[in-house]
């Protein structure tokens, strides 16, 4: 099971984290490439406003690709299987790597845009299918820890991207095309290792009706002596579904039986993206400068933020099946609310005392730790647990779509929010974090050690009233 998490994660959410991180390092080099290409092509200098626009397109088209990937991820997981969708997804990543790698030698910045769009599609599909596969493969007493593989590999991808993006490695002026095309290596690794692992047993029995392959897969995952308990659980779910076909995303919006699960997915995915984590990264450089860290050393300090996220994802993976989902996610949001208050004060009085920037720095790391321990890791885990087999792929498509739209929106609006509210922008995130924590406290039951059918019964009371 541990090897399965690694084989699925390396070409799944690792790609998302890696490609979010690596685009920051070569910013100046890509600006220079755009200027030189434009001058040689049109015999005139590139307008600064047009340069900003082209750079914005290169950076943000990734999230547009992610949205497209999220929209097709659920249907790909139904048609090709969870494992099949992940394997085919690597072909998109390899093609994207080739386009980004040859953009510099050919002098075609359009290939860079196309490559970023394709790697966005790859990330969108990976973010949708990986937690789906891990949630279905895991036994219920390990489901939280295995589903946390999604977050562990995502944060591992961010940290790896930050390290490889250092100018001593591939972040230099001549090596940045290699940096952008290096995402082919995780894709190749998954193409080598994932075929050795079985398809999701739930998919094989419930979607395909292939009982023999399901038993074989369960024996591989759980051992010859332990697989029967999992088989009985899958058969009970299959019986409850009574031949119901996988639902389309729009069908969930009209299904009263999943009304509160769907509201929960929408609130949690929006809450995760709009929690202020992007604001923290935006402010990090300014706060590090105020604390007296030289500009050339800041990329190395920023590695600490990536290491923080990675560490908390691992910690959350160890705690989730002992402490429970509710406690960790509510605690994470409440801690983020607290750090937002302290950070607002410390940024307001940054100039008064020499020690205040260090308070701000502490808040940055504490906020990231709180995010990783709660919302960062548990959101995807809960989406897998709140739905039964027929609704789960559609739920991931909806959750992924909302997440990518929120990601794109906050990327576009965030500079204006910061310019308008300055440090008081954290008051907006403070309110959002406390409201999401209250919603989870009032609505979401604990899902630890419960089967998918037991969790569905818990929501039945909310969806149809207490007495039905």
UniProtKB/TrEMBL annotation:
Gene3D superfamilies: MFS general substrate transporter like domains (1.20.1250.20). Residues 5-448 form the Major facilitator superfamily (MFS) profile domain. One of its GO terms (cellular component) is plasma membrane. It is found in: Membrane. It is a multi-pass membrane protein. Its main location: membrane. InterPro entries: GLUT (IPR045263), MFS_dom (IPR020846), MFS_sugar_transport-like (IPR005828), MFS_trans_sf (IPR036259), Sugar/inositol_transpt (IPR003663), Sugar_transporter_CS (IPR005829). It comes from the Eukaryota. The keyword Transmembrane applies. The chain crosses the membrane at residues 50-72, 84-105, 111-134, 146-164, 176-197, 262-286, 298-320, 327-349, 394-418, 424-444. Keywords: Membrane, Transmembrane, Transmembrane helix, Transport. One of its GO terms (biological process) is D-glucose import. The keyword Transmembrane applies. Belongs to the major facilitator superfamily. Sugar transporter (TC 2.A.1.1) family. This is GTR11 protein. It comes from Syrrhaptes paradoxus (Pallas's sandgrouse). The gene is Slc2a11_0.
């Amino acid at each position: 099971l541990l090897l399965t998490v690694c084989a699925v994660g390396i070409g799944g959410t690792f790609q998302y984290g890696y490609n979010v991180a690596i685009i920051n390092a070569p910013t100046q080099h890509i600006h220079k490439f755009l200027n030189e290409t434009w001058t040689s092509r049109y015999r005139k200098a590139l307008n600064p406003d047009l340069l900003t626009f082209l750079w914005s397109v290169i950076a943000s088209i990734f999230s547009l690709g992610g949205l497209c990937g999220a929209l097709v991820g659920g249907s790909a997981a139904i048609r090709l299987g969870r494992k099949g969708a992940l394997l085919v997804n690597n072909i998109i990543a390899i093609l994207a790597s080739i386009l980004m790698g040859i953009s510099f030698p050919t002098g075609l910045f359009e290939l860079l845009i196309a490559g970023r769009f394709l790697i966005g599609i790859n990330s969108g599909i990976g973010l949708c299918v990986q937690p789906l596969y891990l949630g279905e493969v895991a036994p219920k007493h390990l489901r939280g820890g295995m589903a946390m593989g999604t977050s562990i590999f995502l944060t591992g991808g961010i940290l790896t991207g930050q390290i490889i993006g250092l100018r001593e490695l591939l972040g230099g002026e001549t090596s940045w095309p290699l940096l952008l095309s290096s995402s082919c290596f995780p894709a190749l690794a998954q193409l080598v290792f994932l075929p050795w692992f079985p398809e999701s047993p739930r998919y094989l029995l419930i979607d395909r009706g292939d009982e023999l392959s399901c038993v074989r897969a369960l024996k591989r995952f759980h051992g010859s002596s332990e697989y029967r308990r999992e088989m009985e659980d899958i058969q009970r779910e299959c019986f409850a579904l009574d031949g119901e076909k996988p639902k389309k995303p729009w069908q969930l919006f009209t299904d009263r039986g999943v009304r509160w699960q769907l509201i929960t997915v929408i609130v949690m995915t929006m809450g995760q993206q709009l929690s202020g984590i992007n604001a923290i990264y935006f402010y990090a450089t300014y706060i590090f400068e105020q604390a007296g860290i030289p500009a050339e050393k800041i990329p190395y300090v920023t590695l600490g933020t990536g290491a923080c996220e990675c560490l908390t994802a691992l910690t959350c993976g160890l705690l989730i099946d002992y402490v429970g989902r509710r406690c960790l996610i509510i605690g994470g949001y409440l801690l983020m609310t607290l750090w937002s208050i302290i950070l607002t004060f410390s940024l307001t009085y940054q100039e008064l005392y020499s020690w205040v920037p260090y308070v701000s720095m502490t808040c940055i790391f504490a906020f990231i730790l709180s995010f990783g321990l709660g919302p960062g890791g548990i959101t995807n885990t809960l989406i897998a647990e709140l739905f039964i087999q027929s609704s789960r792929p559609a739920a991931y498509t909806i959750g992924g779509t909302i997440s990518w739209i929120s990601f794109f929106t906050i990327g576009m609006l965030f500079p204006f929010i910061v310019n308008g509210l300055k440090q008081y922008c954290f008051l907006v995130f403070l309110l959002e974090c406390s409201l999401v924590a209250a919603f989870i406290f009032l609505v979401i039951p604990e899902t630890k050690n419960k089967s998918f059918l037991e969790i569905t019964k818990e929501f039945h009371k909310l969806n149809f009233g207490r007495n039905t």
